[in-house]
Amino acid sequence: MLATAEGIAAVAVETPQHAGLTATLDYHCEHTLPPGTMVRVPLGRRQVPGMVWDRAAGAALDAAKIKPIADVLAAIPPLPAPWRQLVAFAAGYYQRSVGELALAVLPPELRKLDAPALARRVARLTASTTTTHEAAPAPALNDSQQAAVQALATMAPGTTLLHGVTGSGKTEVYLQAAAAALAAGRQVLVLVPEINLTPQLEARFAARFAGHRMVSLHSALTPAQRLKHWLAAHLGHADLVLGTRLAVFAAMPRLGLIVVDEEHDPSFKQQEGARYSARDLSVWRGHNEGIAVLLGSATPSLESWQRAEQGAYRRLTLSERIGGGALPRVRVVDMGTLARVKGEEVVISPPLLDALQQRLRSGEQSLVLLNRRGYAPVLHCGACGWKSGCPHCSAWRVFHKIDRTLRCHHCGFTERVPRACPECGNLDIHAIGRGTERLEEHLATLLPGARIARIDADSTRLKGTLEAQLAAVHAGEVDVLVGTQMVAKGHDFRRMTLVAAVNPDSALFASDFRAGERLFALLMQAAGRAGRDAAQGSASEMWVQTWHPRHPLFAALAKHDFAAFAASQLRDREGAGLPPFASLALLRAEARDVVMATAFLHAAARLAAAAPEAAGVMVYPPVPPPISRVAGVERMQMLIESRSRAALQRFLSVWVPQLTPLAKETAHRVLRWAVDVDPLAI
Ligand code: ADP
Ligand code: ZN
Ligand code: ZN
Q1: 3-class SS string, 445-480
Q2: What lines the ligand 1 site, CB under 6 Å?
C-alpha cells in the first residue's frame, strides 16, 4: 500500500468518533512521505497535528479540494508499521477513529510542537547519559523460578501467564526474562497498574539494569518529561520502558518482551475516550510483533486464567514464597455470633482487637483495610429522615470530619456540614456507616498509645505525601495502618504481620458480576502484605470479618486456593453466559434529559434489530447504571452480548458508524454517547 499517490498523502488527524470523520484526509505534499511521518496540516481554520497513514486500497481522491501539508516533523523517524498496525487494530476493536487513537496515544507535547521546536528537543536528547552505578547482582533462582525462566528463554513467541503468590519471586522472573531480552539487544516494555504505587518495582529494575537506560511513561510526568521519555523509546535510546496502560502504545523499534505486572488490575482498562485494555492490547501486540508477553499475577483475571486453562497461554506457576515464608493464616470472624452491645455496631471484633493488641505489644505492624474513604458514607436526620444526598447526582454525599464537609465523590460538590438538619432544623443529625477516617478515630480509642496512620485518596492528595507516609510505615514509625485498597497493592511491608479486612461483605452481593473476583484479588493481595519475612511469616495472619463466613470465596481464601476460586467463578460465569464465556459491549448515553438518552438507545436498538449482522448478538433493553445521575447529567446504558467475540465485532463495526447520524437525528440538545467494548463493569 502506498501512502502517497502522486504527491498526495493520506493523513490521520485527531477527530473524535462523534464528529463523524472516521477515515483519513488527503493533503498535497512535495515529496513522498512514508506512512508514520508526523505532520501538521490545515483543518478548517486551524492547523492540527496529523500522521501520514497507509492509504486504504482504492480510496477516491478529489484533487481539486486538497490542501498542502503545512509542516513535516522530520526530526523523528516515522512511526513504524507494527505501531500503526497496533493503532489500527485498537481503533477497529474499540470502535474509534484511527486518527483519534493515533494522535491521542502520542505524548501531548508532540502534538503541539512544530518542526523546528521538535528538532531542538531531539537534538537535546542525545546529550543524556546512562547511569554508571554498579548493577545489583541477581540472586540464584529457586527451582520453580528456574523452570519459569528457562521455559521463557526456550519459548517461541507467545503469551505466558505467570501465576505466583505475592513474594513467590515473580518480579525476579521478570527481571531475568528482561535481562535475556536486553542481552539480545532488544527493548523491554514493563506495564504496571499505577506507577506511584510501585516505586519498589521501578527501583529494582533500575538497580538491576544499571548501565541500561530506563525511562518511565505515565500521566503524572510533566509534558516535557513525557515527550523526552517517549522519544527515548521511539529512537531506541531507552532499553527499558516502565509505564502505565498508556505505555502499551510506546513506539519501540527493538521491542523484544512485554511484561504486564498484576495483569488482573482494572486500571489497565482506559475509562474514557478509546476504552482500551492495555493488557489485551499487549497480548495482541506481542502476537503481531512475534515476541513474548509475560502476564504476571497472584490472582489472574478470569479471562487470562481461562485462556491458560484452554492452552492458549502457557501457564507457569510459582507455588512457594521465597525463603519458605508461610502464607498468612486466614482467620474468618463470624460477625453473626458476636454478642451485640445494645445499639452499638461492632466494628472491630474482640478476637481481632486481641490480635491487634498483641501485635502492638510485640512491636509488629498491622494493616486494617476498609474500602471506603471519608468519615461516614452518609449523614442522617432521625427526626425527618433527611439524608445527605447530592443535589446533582443519584448518590449520597460523604461526611469528611477532618474539614467538616459533605463531599460528593462523583461530581465533587462540597459543602460545609450543616449544624442542623436542613429539612427540619433538628440539631441531632448523625453519621451512618463508617469510612477510613472514622475507623482511624475508632482504632485510636481502642488502642490508646498506638501510632495510627491512614493512607487513602484523601490523605495522599498532596504531591509527595504518599511517599512520605509509606516511608514512615517502612521506617517502623507506624503501628497500625488504616487504608483503602491503595495500600493493599504491591508494597513490600517487611514488619507487617497482621492484615484485617473489617467489612468486605458488600462486595459479595454487589450487582457487578466481577465484584467477587475483585474482592478475592484484593484480599489475596492484602494477605500478601503480611509475613513477607520468613522469620515472621509463621505468625502472620489475615483477618476477615464477615456475616457470611461460609461463603465459598472465604473458604478458597483460607486455603490460598486461587485455582479453586477461579474454577467456581468460571462455572458461575458459564452458567450465566458472562465473560469469559461471552463478549460484552455497552452503549452508554448521557443527557440532561433521561427521556432523550433513552430514546437514543431505543432508536439504536431498532437499528440493531434491522441489521443482518445482529444475528447471534443480543441487544438488551436500556437500563440506568448503578449511579444514574452524575453532575446533573442522566445516564442510561444498553448491554450488547454475544457468545462469539467475532460476531460481536462484526456487528459493532456495522452498527456503531450509524450511531453518529442517529444521535444527531434523535437529539435536539446535547447527547453524549460512547461504546465500551469489554466493559469492566455493567
Ligand atoms: P513477587 O514479585 O512474586 O511478589 P519478588 O520477586 O518480589 O516476588 O520476590 C520476593 C522477595 O524475594 C524479594 O525481596 C526478592 O528480592 C526476593 N527473591 C526473589 N527471588 C529470589 C531468589 N531466587 N533468591 C533470593 N531471594 C529472592
Ligand atoms: Zn430532619
Ligand atoms: Zn454529586
Answers
A1: HHCCCCCEEEECCCCCCCCCHHHHHHHHHHCCCCCE
A2: 139-142, 145, 164, 166-172, 322
Nearest of 67, 75, 70 to residue 50 by alpha carbon: 70
Element (H, E) at 381: strand 378-381
Beta strand 314-318 pairing with 159-164: parallel
Rounded distance from Cα 400 to ligand 2 centre (Å): 20
SS3 letters across 410-446:
CCCCEEECCCCCCCCCCCCEEEECCCHHHHHHHHHHH
Beta carbons within 8 Å of 133's beta carbon, 6+ residues apart: 210
488 DSSP assignment: T
419: which residues sit within 8 A by CB, 6+ positions away?
427
Q: How many CA atoms does the CB half-sphere of 424 hold within 13 Å?
A: 12
Q: What is d(CA 85, CA 54) in angstroms, rounded to the nearest whole number?
A: 10
Cis check for the bond before 253: say yes or no (omega within 30 of 0): no
The pTM of this model reads 0.92
Distance of CA 157 to the CA centre of its chain: 25
**How far apart (Å, rounded) are the C-alpha atoms in residues 215 and 197?**
17
* Angle at 630 (CA atoms; ends 626, 632), nearest 5 degrees: 135
Residues of the chain with pLDDT under 70: 1-6, 16-22, 56-64, 126-133, 154-156, 197-198, 340-343, 490, 531-538
C-beta separation of 348 from 480 below 8 A: no
| H-helix or E-strand spanning residue 665 | helix 645-666
Residues 6+ apart with CB under 8 A from 645: 583
| Four-point Cα dihedral 225, 229, 232, 233, nearest 10 | -160
Residue pLDDT, tens place only, 346-355? 899 999 999 9
Phi and psi at residue 303, to the nearest 5°: -60, -50
Listed residue (357, 334, 335) closest to 345, CA to CA: 335
Identify whether the C-beta of residue 565 lies closer than 8 Å to the C-beta of residue 520: yes
pLDDT tens-place string over residues 390-428: 999 999 999 999 899 999 999 999 999 999 999 999 999
Which ligand 1 atom is the nearest neighbour of the CA of 142?
23
Do the Cβ atoms of 579 and 303 come closer than 8 Å?
yes
Which residue, judged by its Cα, is nearest atom 6 of ligand 1? 169
Cβ burial 543-569 (10 Å sphere, 16+ → b, else e): bbbbebbebebbbbbeebebeebbeeb
For residue 138, give the ligand nearest its CA: 1
Pairwise CA distance, residues 308 & 328, whole Å: 27
CA 673-676-677 angle, 5° bins: 145
Ligand nearest to the CA of 397: 3
pLDDT at site 164 = 94
Of 172, 259, 265, 297, best ligand 1 pocket probe by most atoms within 8 Å of the beta carbon: 172
